[in-house]
């Protein structure tokens, strides 16, 4: 099983979905560490309750962004992580960090990328009057929310939606597509290659071999 670390800043519901999926015996990844950049993140408690190791590494404890990221990398390496899932991690990682983990960082963003990169995607989708919205899991590259897409899920936008109701509908889909994307990456069925995702098909059992 691929050792995975999850980086959070808050509630951690996507983290919980990943932990739940990874608890299944046939899931190809296991969660070795949850790191939060916020000591008050609710997700820390959720992870601890199910026996996952956690570390709080806040930016204010370090003189620079580089030192903060070096501390995160040290914790990830110590835990043996080979993949990183950003799950509501609200800090923009430096090019140096991303380069060190090239092709091994996934993020979930609550929009159908490349629409609505960055902040307030639900509000901007409502303001634009789009009828379909959703979420995307992508590999992290230097440009914010612009890395190649592994998985997406769509929801309808309803006439009486508020930011809150729309976010909740999208979140339900996030919890389904993030474990799916992690599974594909951990199995090598989706791989970062030359700035794009290369998808492979699951080998089918040969006729007569079942
Ligand atoms: C999720 O909706 C996630 O997609 C979003 O923050 C929320 C975190 O919720 N992430 C971003 O906006 C990243 N730019 P969670 O902590 O319950 O998973």
UniProtKB/TrEMBL annotation:
Its EC number is 2.1.2.2. (6R)-10-formyltetrahydrofolate binds at residues 65, 107. The active site is at residue 109. Transmembrane segments: none annotated. The record marks 145 as: Raises pKa of active site His. Residues 4-182 form the Formyl transferase N-terminal domain. It comes from the Bacteria. Catalyzes the transfer of a formyl group from 10-formyltetrahydrofolate to 5-phospho-ribosyl-glycinamide (GAR), producing 5-phospho-ribosyl-N-formylglycinamide (FGAR) and tetrahydrofolate. Belongs to the GART family. This is Phosphoribosylglycinamide formyltransferase. The gene is purN.
């Amino acid at each position: 099983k691929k050792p995975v670390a999850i980086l959070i800043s808050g509630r951690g519901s996507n983290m919980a979905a990943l932990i739940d999926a990874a608890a299944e015996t046939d899931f190809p990844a296991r969660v070795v560490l949850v790191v939060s950049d916020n000591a008050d993140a609710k997700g820390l408690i959720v992870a601890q309750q199910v026996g996952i190791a956690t570390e709080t590494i806040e930016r204010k404890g370090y003189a620079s962004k580089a030192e903060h990221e070096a501390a995160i990398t040290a914790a990830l390496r110590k835990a043996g992580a080979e993949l990183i899932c950003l799950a509501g991690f609200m800090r923009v990682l430096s090019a140096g960090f991303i380069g060190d983990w090239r092709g091994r960082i996934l993020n979930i963003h609550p929009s159908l990328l490349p629409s609505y990169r960055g902040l307030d995607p639900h509000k901007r989708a409502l303001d634009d009057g789009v009828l379909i919205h959703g979420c995307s899991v992508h590999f992290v590259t230097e440009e914010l929310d612009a890395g190649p897409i592994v998985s997406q899920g769509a929801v309808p936008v309803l006439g009486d939606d508020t930011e809150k109701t729309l976010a909740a509908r999208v979140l339900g889909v996030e919890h389904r597509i993030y474990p799916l994307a992690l599974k594909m990456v951990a199995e090598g069925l989706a791989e970062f290659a030359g700035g794009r995702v290369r998808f492979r098909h699951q080998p089918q059992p040969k006729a007569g071999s079942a």
